[in-house]
Specification:
The chain has 262 residues and is an alpha/beta fold. It has one domain (5-192, 222-256): Survival protein SurE-like phosphatase/nucleotidase (Stationary-phase Survival Protein Sure Homolog, Chain: A, 3-Layer(aba) Sandwich). Helices cover 26% and strands 25% of the residues. It has helices spanning 21-33, 75-86, 111-114, 116-126, 147-163, 230-235, 251-256; strands at residues 9-13, 36-42, 61-65, 68-71, 97-104, 131-136, 169-175, 186-188, 196-197, 200-204, 210-214, 217-218, 239-245. Helix 5 links the parallel strand 6 and strand 7 (169-175). The longest helix is centred in the middle third of the chain and has 17 residues, at 147-163. The relative contact order is 0.14.
Length: 262
């Protein structure tokens, strides 16, 4: 593709909501790349909503300024309504790039199934728009350090745009939780497995009825030593880049099933 990032129309979405600090950092990155930046984000947090769409209730839109909107919908809704309605209403020009994030918390390994951040990027990919999901690893109780994302985010996006990607694919990018703003090594790695240990905490309401909080926790980093994947690289202080695709077909299983129903 011909490449001139400054002329690209860039759409920003997220799953943490229109007021999220990660979205503000993503805007800094986008404006370092492009002169035409739009924002369409959920009004409230939509974490772990995955690729859900709103089908049984109206989506209401609040316009904050010329190129900034919030909606009562999901991250994937944001992409759809931006591409089909909100962005380019006057000139008919759709976004050339969709950036989703920056999520406050990583999206690694099994997280990808649940991630609203990734769901938005995948929705863009379904429309044939180059897309990237960006997430920031955090450590509970410690301040979020956005310095690495600010320092290296624009260069990573620019490099991936120049490299291009297959149709129907997107990139998943995770920044590590490190101190300072020293450059971190960037590596293209595969998606890991089993980054999350599910559990529930049972309680009683004032009337004695049971209810549960999802209290799942991320597994300890040493459980992943030796694997060359996104989890290991980010825990080691690096920035992971993983190309993902919409086609979920399990090729190995396909081969194993040859002739089963002949």
């Amino acid at each position: 593709m011909s490449f001139d990032a400054r002329k690209m129309r860039t759409l920003l979405v997220n799953d943490d909501g229109i007021s999220a600090p990660g979205l503000a950092v993503l805007e800094e990155i986008a404006r370092a790349l492009s002169d035409d930046v739009w924002v369409v984000a959920p009004q409230t947090e939509q974490s772990a909503i995955s690729h859900a769409l709103t089908l049984r209730q109206p989506i209401r839109v609040h316009q904050h300024d010329e190129k900034r909107f919030s909606i009562t919908g999901t991250p994937a809704d944001c992409v759809q309504i931006a591409l089909l309605e909100l962005v380019g209403m006057t000139d008919g020009r759709k976004p050339d790039l969709v950036l989703s994030g920056i999520n406050m918390g990583p999206n690694l390994a099994d997280d990808l199934v649940y991630s609203g951040t990734l769901g938005a990027a995948m929705e863009a990919a379904m429309f044939g728009v180059p897309a990237m999901a960006l997430s920031q690893f955090i450590v509970g109780g410690e301040p979020v350090n956005w310095a690495v994302a600010r320092k290296q985010g624009a260069d990573i996006v620019r490099a991936l745009l120049k490299a291009g990607g297959a149709n129907g694919s997107c990139f998943n990018i995770n920044f590590p939780a490190v101190s300072g703003d020293v450059p971190c090594p960037v590596k293209v790695v595969r998606q890991g497995v089993e980054s999350y240990a599910g559990s529930f905490e049972g309680r009683k309401d004032p009337r004695g009825h049971s209810y549960y909080w999802n209290a799942g926790r991320r597994k300890a980093p040493d459980a992943f030593d030796g694997r060359d994947d996104d989890v290991t690289h980010v825990h080691a202080g690096g920035i992971s880049v993983t190309p993902l695709r919409l086609d979920w077909t399990h090729e190995e299983a396909m081969k194993g099933l040859e002739g089963v129903f002949a």
